[in-house]
Amino acid sequence: METVVTLAPSASASSSPTWAWRRVLGYFGGAVLGLILLVAAGAKALDPQGFAEQIHAENLDFAFSAPAVALIGLGIEVAVGLALLLGLRRLWVLIPSALLVAFLVFLTARTYVRSIQGEASAAASCGCFGNLVQRTPGEAFWQDLLMLVPPLGLAFVGRPRGGRFPRGRVAAVALATGAVVAFGAKASELPLDDLATRLKPGVQTAKVCAGEGAEAVCLGTLVPDLARGNHMVVLADLDSATFTGLVPDLNRYSAGAEGQGARPLIVLSGSSSESKTSFFWKFGPAFEVREAPPALLRPLYRRLPRAFEVRDGQVARTFSTVEEIRRELGAPAAPAEDPAQSSRP
Amino acid sequence: MMPPRALRSGFLTLALGAAFASGPIGAAAGQMGADAFLHGFERSGDYQLTVGGKVQPAAEIYALPSGVPAFLILSSALPSPVLLMPGEGSVQTVQLMKILTRPDGTVDLMADAALSPQGKFEIVGEDVRFKTEGRTAALQPRPALLGLKKAVDLTTYNPEYARRAKAYKPNDKAVQKLRGVAQPVRVRVFFGSWCPHCKEHVPLLLKVEEQIKGSKIQIEYYGLAKGLGDADSKKFGIQSVPTGVVYSNGKEIGRLNAADWAAPETALAALLARK
Fold this sequence. Notes:
The structure holds two protein chains of two kinds. By secondary structure, chain A is an alpha/beta fold. Chain A is 55% helix and 9% strand. Chain A has helices at 11-15, 17-46, 48-57, 66-85, 91-116, 119-124, 137-155, 167-187, 193-196, 219-222, 241-244, 247-260, 273-283, 294-297, 322-329, 339-342, and strands spanning 209-210, 217-218, 230-236, 265-269, 288-291, 306-311, 314-319. In chain A, the strands form two sheets. A five-stranded mixed sheet of chain A has the order 5-4-3-6-7. In chain A, α2 (17-46) runs antiparallel to α4 (66-85) and α4 packs antiparallel against α8 (167-187). By secondary structure, chain B is an alpha+beta fold. Chain B has eight helices and 18 strands. Chain B has helices at residues 5-22, 25-29, 151-157, 159-167, 172-179, 196-211, 231-235, 264-274; strands at 42-43, 47-51, 54-55, 60-63, 71-74, 82-85, 90-94, 99-101, 107-109, 115-120, 122-124, 127-132, 135-141, 147-149, 185-191, 217-223, 243-248, 251-256. In chain B, α3 (151-157) packs across α4, α4 (159-167) crosses α6 (196-211) and α5 (172-179) packs across α8 (264-274). The radius of gyration of chain B is 22 Å and the shape is elongated. The termini of chain B are far apart. In chain B, 41% of the residues are buried. At the A-B interface, β2, α10, α12, α13 and β5 of A face α6 of B.
């Protein structure tokens, strides 16, 4: 078992009350920064695909694929966060911490500058809702700066110097990091959608919103019908073959729903109007496809399509895989792929 | 009730075969009615027709309002009316005399209408291109309605606005309050003729405008370009459409935003009561 106490620069300095306070303050700063990083990493570990999309949007996948960069980023964030939380405030932890914080602040600063120059908003703007954001680029930059930099600065205060190499804590960090990265690599296959997204049973559709203040757009506003009765809602990427493969089942379900008073079907999509036109004419949907701002839809899924049942304005059940959706629509499961067929050149 | 596309397609094939083989199907039944599925077409304002590259402003384009989609195009520039079936990709012509226009403006295909296949349409960008009886034609999204407009401009541009306005029942109390407003108020509604949400919500205010005619509230409509990146959107600070900017004495006193459009008369009455 390692000794947690580390040597101060000098015996007299380490025993002084000022030095003790500096160490407490330093540990506090490091722990706060570590917690922030771990909370952020937790969300990324649950939805690595969403993190990979962000990485791609930021053009950070120039050397490796976005999913690989996502796992590397996740590992760095967990390792640094956990090391700081465990009080590892050596230079070989603090310097990577400072680099990570600098990089994160740089990303928000870059978006902020682009938004001032009118580049980012123009790129993100589409449909009836313009550029809906939870935080403006300016707010994101200042919030990140104020949340990350002060605790980082504090983490350098009263840092321990010399002493034995903290093997136990380093091993704990390495083990935990490996476990989180392994979890992140498998997370998208695990049934964690309700945990990882804002869409789960019990949620009121009127309270699922994007944007701020009076400009906020909520699911309840987009589809007021959800407030009363039972509805099936499918979140979809109209360009995805996975979704277009479901169209015959959705059409069949929709036709049945019209006649038998079953749940009306609504498809929500953030796809472009070109995609919507192309989808409409190619696949002839018998159901309604409504435009929804991507900023509203993105926190509601890890993978598309995802469906949910709404009863009187409240999410009753969610269906996060194509198989679950097919089952709910009463459609026969898709035939399993013949391994012999698929292995042929 | 609309059956699934596959079933309906089968029905059409059957109907077509029967029509060619033994004359009108309905004749056997003794009474000629509307087609079981291809009826209730409503005038659509989403597309314009071009024939040989020229826009046909007088063309009438109808769409089925729900269920499996279908478009019926009537134009003097085409030898026969054309039926387009999304999903199937089919282009078919129909005899003009087999189209029945109802008093409410909806259109039915008669049960014994024979459909003549003309091939498949293709999608190029947002255009739907097809050939029929030697003519090259296309459905294109209509150019956006831009700038200051009146209610009649909107209903003329897209008949769906008129239909939805007609169907809406505003809150009586809120309408009474709006009628009783003492100071002149101007509401400028920024909208996008290309925006599906505007098509749902702006008609509600069209109905309110009709009901408060003669009051001190003046409502006007301002069409914005797609994408909201134009100078007008920036000048008036429009982040989303529809947005209603409310002015009193030339000064902005509030806005009708996203959630307000569920019942714009109630939101407007509440906004004016606060000021």
